[in-house]
Amino acid sequence: MPAFICVNCGVQYAATESPPGRCIICDDARESAALSDQSWTTLPAMRRNHFNTFRRLEPGLMGIGTAPDFAIGQRALLLRTPQGNILWDCVSFLDDTTMTILSALGGVAAIAVSHPHFYGAVIEWSHAFNSAPVYLHAADRKFVTRLDPVISFWEDDAQEIAPGITLLRCGGHFAGSAVLHWAQGSGGSGTLLTGDTIHVGADRHVSFMRSFPNLIPLDAGTVQRIADVLAPWPFDGIYGAFWDRTIPSDGKVALARSVDRYIGAVSGPPDD
Length: 272
What we know:
Number of strands: 19
Oligomer: single chain
Number of domains: 1
CATH superfamily: Ribonuclease Z/Hydroxyacylglutathione hydrolase-like
Helix content: 10-25%
Distance between the termini: 58 Å
Low-confidence stretches: none
Structural class: alpha+beta
Radius of gyration: 18 Å
Strand content: 25-35%
CATH architecture: 4-Layer Sandwich
Largest sheet: 7 strands, mixed
CATH class: Alpha Beta
Strand order of the largest sheet: 3-4-5-6-7-8-9
Order of helices and strands: EEHEEEEHEHEEEEEHEEEEEHEEH
């Protein structure tokens, strides 16, 4: 039986004889199912016209994205560490070429995902790499479309999954929305991998939304909580969910500046 993948959001479901009636991710107000009819594909079908691309972003960090763009269009990040490689966020597509390349780089020892929109084919990826543990926040359990023993539901606000690599629950976009803090990144100054829990904009600022396609913002208190969660953690670089969404330096300053700008915008009338 095929494991169907939602064409709109890219999340894979457990194997069934026929596609699910609806996608629970897309029917949520944070996605955009109303803009298109529900449709499905499978990995064998995608392998006819898709492939993954790879890009070195900094020492120890590689991006993995799918071409042509599929579903939301995010790219995953591969952290290479002496204790094993960690995949942050996930894409829907996986093929033999991808597995060969990553195996040559040491494989994947663990996977962590920021929030349900980027679950992709995470169980497929885990099974391809010796059932690597998959870290998902327990607050988003109801959005998991393919339950499997490889999933480790973490709780509370922080979970270290390897030395110097810590998942931090920020909330906001989803109750369990998380970022990854990589202490050794940015030359030892620390790097933050944010998915779109914290969305990197085009002007060296970041922003925050409950729903991106439906333009539903977060309230000021929730954004301040995100800032408070990250306040103790040092970092310089910020990597968002997409290839061109990166703040290479002064990320801590950019976050503080962005929080002030956002809270000012949602708390009162504009200045001009």
